[in-house]
């Protein structure tokens, strides 16, 4: 049995709302982490910050996890990963004047 277009539109609307909710939840989570890391205090161009986040995301996708300081730090790093920390206030590989 085929679905009517109105039913499909209702399903799409529900999915769009679920997407908005999920994106909001993810943004709040990342925002809290960024604030804890001190990014709220750094004056930098939004494009530079986005580039740094993209660089960080790519490193995680490749499995290059930066170990955190303290107890159990090695548990979070992956074997053979070449972790290169990004300096505070600079985008990945950029010379910035913030």
Tell me what you see in this structure.
By secondary structure, the protein is an all-alpha fold. The protein has a domain at 1-62. It contains three helices and no strands.
Give me a quick take on this structure.
The protein has 98 residues and is an all-alpha fold.
Provide keyphrases for this structure.
98 residues; mainly alpha; 0% strand; elongated; TraC family protein
Contiguous uncertain segments of 5+ residues: 71-98
Following the backbone from N to C, one meets helices and strands in this order, namely HHH
Helix content: 40-55%
Distance between the termini: 60 Å
The global form is elongated
Q: What profile does the largest beta sheet have? A: none
Put simply, the count of helices is 3
Percentage of β-strand residues: under 5%
Radius of gyration: 19 Å
Number of strands: 0
Average pLDDT, rounded to a whole number, is 78
Structural class, from helix and strand content?
mainly alpha
List the helices and strands and how they pair.
Elements: H1 5-36, H2 46-61, H3 73-76
């Amino acid at each position: 049995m085929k679905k009517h277009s109105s039913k499909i539109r209702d399903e799409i609307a529900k999915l769009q709302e679920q997407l908005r909710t999920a994106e909001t939840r993810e943004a709040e989570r990342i925002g809290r982490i960024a604030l804890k890391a001190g990014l709220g205090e750094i004056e930098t161009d939004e494009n530079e910050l986005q580039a740094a986040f993209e660089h960080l995301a790519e490193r995680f996708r490749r499995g290059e996890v930066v170990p955190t300081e303290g107890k159990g730090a090695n548990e979070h790093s992956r074997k053979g990963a070449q972790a290169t920390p990004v300096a505070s206030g600079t985008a990945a590989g950029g010379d910035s004047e913030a």
